[in-house]
Design brief:
The structure is a homodimer.
Chain A (H helix, E strand, L loop, with lengths): L2 H37 L8 H26 L3 H34 L10 H22 L2 H31 L4 H33 L6 H11 L1
Helix pairs in contact in A: 1-2, 1-3, 1-4, 2-3, 3-6, 4-5, 4-6, 5-6
């Protein structure tokens, strides 16, 4: 392997490592936001925003790395797909960071009022969403299609939990109008978590596309195109 | 200009044209979904899903074009940024298509029940969101920073309208529990429109980054980094 190729491999590894670092930050943020919500210490200032600054800094660095890899190394085939996927994953992770900040804002409003109900499903949703973020990035780095597929399947569980949360809180709202404001905040938190799951699903789909060069995003359409070609 | 360069310019134009085509479809979908909601013809089958299939087909084509441009032409500098921005814009447009389908689903539920109130702000939100989509793509094709910046500013109006919708519907819910289900569907539609505005904002930010090579996504952070370098 020549010197140029070795340098490229090293740069590509650095690129992947930065994305892992960003995903780890996003995971920490999810944990923090939910534990702040569950523990209800209204005097504590949320630690989430300081992590978001790190995520934003990483987003800029990673975009610059992607551009530099593309411009100076002129990669082809699977390396090219990896860099393009990485650039998209970068955007997804940044938005996950934004969503966690939104959760923190809702939590802040909730802590000014008495608790509406014990929180069970929302922490479960958060656990699933956090795991999806980690596993989608693991799938990216290890080029693991099966793991990416399992992330996509986990999203159904997140959606099912969200629907459960929604139904339960609707009954609260219908039986007592004073619960409406708090119930709406909790519904919003559930939606933010659902969207974090959606972003992890987008990452997993990008990973499969990167590895297999086929599009899992619209399977029926792909099949039709395939048949037309045959 | 040599033959190779001419071919590259032609391919890049085709790439941009496909993105414009996809944005035009997304605009049509927004119009359709909202007019179906406002006109309340419950017997009519929504036309939105057939457009979504076209959007999904275009997404695959555009990703392949981006990969082909990067692999065969090995572009640098601003062309490289354009292709990378285009690949990201492609993902944003596909998600706008998904969101319009979600609006259609909410509308379908609403049409089975008597109207809760005349819809004023939701169609206004839709108009703004649709305009943001078109202008963000115009800014991309014309490399127009000012237009991209105006898209980002319009997002504040969309958010303000969404808050207005939310407040109004909360009062409906509090005064009459029978309105809760319909109010929740309308709130969800307003949120989907808000997210369409967010995606157009993402596109506008990608466009500015593409043209100026500077990141508008986190201005304070950029400034700090700049100062550290000086």
């Amino acid at each position: 392997m020549d010197k140029h190729a070795r340098q490229f491999d090293k740069d590509l590894d650095d690129f992947k490592r930065k994305l892992l670092e960003m995903a780890a930050l996003a995971e920490t943020m999810i944990d923090l936001a939910i534990s702040e919500l569950v523990q209800r210490d209204e005097h504590q200032v949320s630690q989430v925003p300081q992590y978001e600054r790190d995520v934003n800094r990483l987003q800029i660095e990673i975009d610059e790395m992607a551009l530099a890899l593309l411009a100076t190394q002129q990669p082809v085939a699977v390396d090219l797909r990896t860099i393009l996927a990485g650039a998209k994953i970068n955007s997804e992770l940044e938005r996950i960071g934004d969503l966690v900040c939104n959760i923190t804002e809702c939590a802040h409003t909730l802590l000014t009022q008495p608790p509406l109900k014990p929180l069970i499903d929302i922490p479960r949703m958060a656990d699933l969403a956090r795991r999806m973020v980690r596993e989608s990035l693991d799938a990216f780095v290890r080029e693991d299609v099966l793991l990416a597929e399992s992330v996509i399947m986990t999203d159904d569980q997140v959606d099912a939990l969200k629907n459960q949360v929604l139904r339960e809180l609707m009954t609260y709202m219908m039986s007592d109008p004073r619960s409406i404001e708090r119930a709406m905040s909790l519904i919003l938190i559930a939606r933010h978590l659902e969207r974090i799951g959606d972003h992890a699903t987008n990452i997993a789909e990008d990973v499969i596309y990167m590895i297999q060069g086929r599009d899992v995003r619209h399977p029926r359409l792909q099949k039709e195109q395939q048949e037309r070609k045959e």
